[in-house]
């Protein structure tokens, strides 16, 4: 009855504790409605996973089936780009050829049509050489406002030289044409939209003797005499047996709005 009975009682107590470790309510809940719900959730999860796997498989199959069409479209696009490049190259080659033909024809016209050459000379489309006068204009050395050379001063000078018989005029190497502009902009005088600075050298091709005399007698000559007297600007005229003036810039030769009247050529 001593130690063996004590051991047997301890073992029986442990077995009883193990058998009753969970409350009876646990078994009730586990085997109740909640168990059915958990079983439903498990089935639903399996269905969702199956559907997802099916969608992935369909997408993979669709991608694989669309790949040949995509590659065909890419190849077609590359061919189209190459064809357009070839067309552009052909057109550029044609433009170069036509420009060469135009230049050749223009050279032929120049060689036997003096009237056309004269028109180009008047339009300032070709350089010119011949006798004439050179006018050198400088501002007052005292640098006062009245003694500065203005764009208006140069316009009066050029117009006066045209009136006196000039056939070609340039200012600081800039040829004056029918569409040329002499204006003040950005703190500088510009001719054909190119900035120039003093001294202003105006070269005019024409009869050097009569042009100088006619300039002195016309309103432009009197204007400059007064500018010399009132503002102290420099104004010097010299005759030359040979002057050279360049060509007006191409943009100043382009007619954008005016058209010739038929029958008045």
UniProtKB/TrEMBL annotation:
Coiled-coil regions, chain positions: none
Matching PANTHER family: UPF0749 PROTEIN RV1823 (PTHR37313:SF1), UPF0749 PROTEIN RV1825 (PTHR37313)
Transmembrane segments: none
Organism per entry: Aeromicrobium yanjiei
InterPro entries (UniProt xref): DUF881
Similarity remark: Belongs to the UPF0749 family.
Gene3D superfamilies associated with the record: Protein of unknown function DUF881 (3.30.70.1880)
Protein's recorded name: DUF881 domain-containing protein
Domain of life of the source: Bacteria
GO cellular component, one term: plasma membrane
């Amino acid at each position: 009855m001593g130690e063996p009975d004590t051991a047997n009682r301890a073992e029986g107590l442990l077995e009883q504790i193990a058998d009753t470790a969970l409350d009876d309510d646990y078994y009730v809940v586990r085997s109740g409605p909640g168990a059915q719900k958990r079983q439903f959730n498990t089935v639903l999860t399996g269905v969702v996973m199956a559907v997802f796997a099916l969608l992935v498989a369909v997408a993979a199959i669709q991608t694989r089936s669309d790949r040949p069409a995509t590659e065909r479209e890419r190849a077609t696009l590359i061919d189209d780009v190459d064809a357009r490049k070839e067309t552009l190259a052909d057109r550029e080659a044609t433009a170069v050829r036509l420009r060469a033909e135009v230049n050749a024809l223009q050279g032929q016209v120049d060689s036997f049509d003096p009237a056309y050459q004269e028109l180009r000379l008047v339009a300032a489309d070709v350089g010119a050489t011949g006798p004439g006068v050179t006018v050198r204009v400088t501002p007052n050395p005292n640098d006062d406002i009245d003694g500065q050379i203005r764009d208006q001063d140069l316009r009066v000078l050029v117009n006066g030289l045209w009136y006196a018989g000039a056939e070609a005029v340039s200012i600081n190497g800039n040829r004056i044409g029918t569409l040329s502009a002499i204006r003040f902009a950005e703190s500088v005088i510009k001719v054909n939209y190119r900035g120039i600075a003093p001294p202003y050298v105006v070269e005019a091709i024409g009869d050097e003797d009569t042009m100088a005399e006619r300039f002195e007698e016309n309103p432009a000559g009197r204007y400059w005499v007064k500018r010399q007297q009132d503002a102290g600007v420099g104004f010097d005229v010299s005759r030359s047996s040979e002057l050279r003036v360049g060509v007006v810039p191409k943009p100043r030769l382009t007619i954008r709005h005016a058209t010739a009247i038929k029958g008045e050529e």
